[in-house]
Every structure is written in structure tokens, then in C-alpha cells.
Design brief:
CATH architecture: 3-Layer(aba) Sandwich
Structural class: alpha/beta
Number of domains: 1
CATH class: Alpha Beta
CATH superfamily: NAD(P)-binding Rossmann-like Domain
CATH topology: Rossmann fold
Number of strands: 9
Shape: globular
Strand order of the largest sheet: 3-2-1-4-7-8-9
Strand content: 15-25%
Number of helices: 9
Radius of gyration: 18 Å
Largest sheet: 7 strands, parallel
Helix content: 40-55%
Length: 254
């Protein structure tokens, strides 16, 4: 799918992976709408790239419907949707004080899984009514964000790993189902990414984390995630795939 003048929706667009992706896609000529719970952060990015910003709680079906409609009114129906909204949700299942609260586990899955699913299903519902494009008769592409924790979840990552494992498992059946509408579905599973949260780590902790990555021995840059998003969008043969972006890292138990 071509980027130029194509409407794009990015959740979690106010920072990190979402913001980096917004900048890369806008530079390619896309019309970008940023969805984020932090409207101020989204508006700052939108101002830089000439996009639009909307406050959105991805766990709310009605809120997502309203915001997608507003984004469509601003730029036209989205043909590209990138789900970057999510939470880490670190915590052990068992501690000396007791077991993890079911409500905590549920909250992580609600944001990371139900939130992504809300945006995916409602976006695809709108995409199926868009005109076909190009020789492949495509209508859209949806990219979700998983994590290598889906495959090698560490101690303390049970809720997060379970949520990202669900994103991995969702990819192929959704891609198969949406194929008849000309809508592709893929996911990216990044390793540790150089975000503001990581930047606040002590130097020795950061160095230790970077040393676990075989090559290149550093953290993933948000711009590298964004570059992969751009390639997936432009390569119509990539469908139903979960692509690891991790420098050959395989995480240890802890």
C-alpha cells in the first residue's frame, strides 16, 4: 500500500513507538491521526508532523468508535492502523505476601489485548466498505504490537507475556478472515526498546541489558520499529506474520 495521502491511525501515538512511527509515516506523505490517553503528548507530536490528535481510551468500545469517526472526518477512512497503545504490567504471580490480584492481571489484558482488539475490529469493519486499491484490490493494513516476551516471558512478566501472546495468536486468524476484504493483518514483536523509561535507568543497569543483545549489542531504536512498520505497509506480500525485532535476543528467565 502506498503511503502518500493515505489516512493512518496510530494508537499510543503520543510517545515511544507510536510517536516514532507517526513521524516516519508522515514523512512518507501519510495523513496521520494520533490516538492517546495523554492528549497533550499526542497534540505535540501532531503539531510537529501536521497530523491530528485525539484523546482515546482503547478499552472503551464507544470511545474508540467515536474517535475513529472523528479521525475519518478529519482525514478520510483509515486504511492503515497501527496499535502501539499498551502497558507493561510487571509483577510476580506469587510473592511472600500472597498471589497476584486477578484484577491486576485483568487490567493488563484489557489494555493490551481488548484495547488492540477493539481498534482492530472496528477499523476493519470500516475498511471493508472502502474502495479497492491497486492491482491487488487492497483496502487496508493493520499492524499490532506484540513483544518477544510472548515467546520468552521472564519472571515477573506473566501478565504482560500473556497479553502479548494473545496478540501473536490473534494475527493469523484475523489475517485469514480479513483476506476476503483485502485487509492485511500483521504484528511486530520487539525486544527491549530505547524509550524514555529505559533512559531513566542507571548506566550499569542499561549496560547490562544491552549486553544481552547479540547484535547489534544495544537496545532497539523506536525508529527501527517505525521503519519496519513502513516496510510492512508497502510490501503487500507480508500478511499474517509476527516479525521479531530483537537483534537475535532470547531472554533469560530473569
Amino acid at each position: 500500500m502506498e503511503l502518500k495521502n493515505t489516512p493512518v491511525v496510530i494508537t499510543g501515538g503520543g510517545s515511544g513507538l507510536g510517536a516514532a512511527t507517526a513521524r516516519v509515516l508522515a514523512a512518507g506523505g501519510a495523513k496521520v491521526a494520533l490516538l492517546d490517553r495523554n492528549l497533550d503528548a499526542a497534540e505535540k507530536v501532531a503539531k510537529d508532523i501536521g497530523g491530528a490528535a485525539f484523546e482515546c481510551d482503547v478499552t472503551s468500545e464507544e470511545n474508540v468508535k467515536t474517535v475513529l469517526a472523528a479521525a475519518a472526518k478529519a482525514h478520510g477512512g483509515a486504511r492503515i492502523v497501527i496499535n502501539c497503545a499498551g502497558v507493561l504490567g510487571a509483577g510476580r504471580i506469587l510473592t511472600r505476601e500472597g498471589s497476584m490480584a486477578a484484577s491486576f492481571f485483568e487490567t493488563v489484558l484489557r489494555v493490551n489485548v481488548v484495547g488492540s482488539f477493539n481498534v482492530l475490529r472496528l477499523s476493519a469493519e470500516a475498511m471493508q466498505g472502502l474502495p479497492e486499491m491497486g492491482s491487488d484490490k487492497e483496502r487496508g493494513v493493520i499492524i499490532n504490537t506484540a513483544s518477544i516476551a510472548a515467546y520468552e516471558g521472564q519472571i515477573g512478566q506473566a501478565a504482560y507475556a500473556a497479553s502479548k501472546g494473545a496478540i501473536v495468536s490473534l494475527t493469523l486468524p484475523a489475517a485469514r478472515e480479513f483476506a476476503r476484504f483485502g485487509v492485511r493483518v500483521n504484528a511486530i514483536a520487539p525486544g527491549p526498546v530505547d524509550t524514555p523509561m529505559v533512559a531513566g535507568m542507571p548506566d550499569d543497569v542499561r549496560a547490562s541489558l544491552e549486553a544481552t543483545v547479540p547484535f547489534p549489542p544495544r537496545l532497539i531504536k523506536p525508529e527501527e520499529y517505525a521503519a519496519l512498520v513502513k516496510h510492512i505497509i508497502e510490501n503487500n506480500a507480508i500478511n499474517g506474520e509476527v516479525i521479531r525485532l530483537d537483534g537475535a535476543l532470547r531472554m533469560a528467565p530473569k
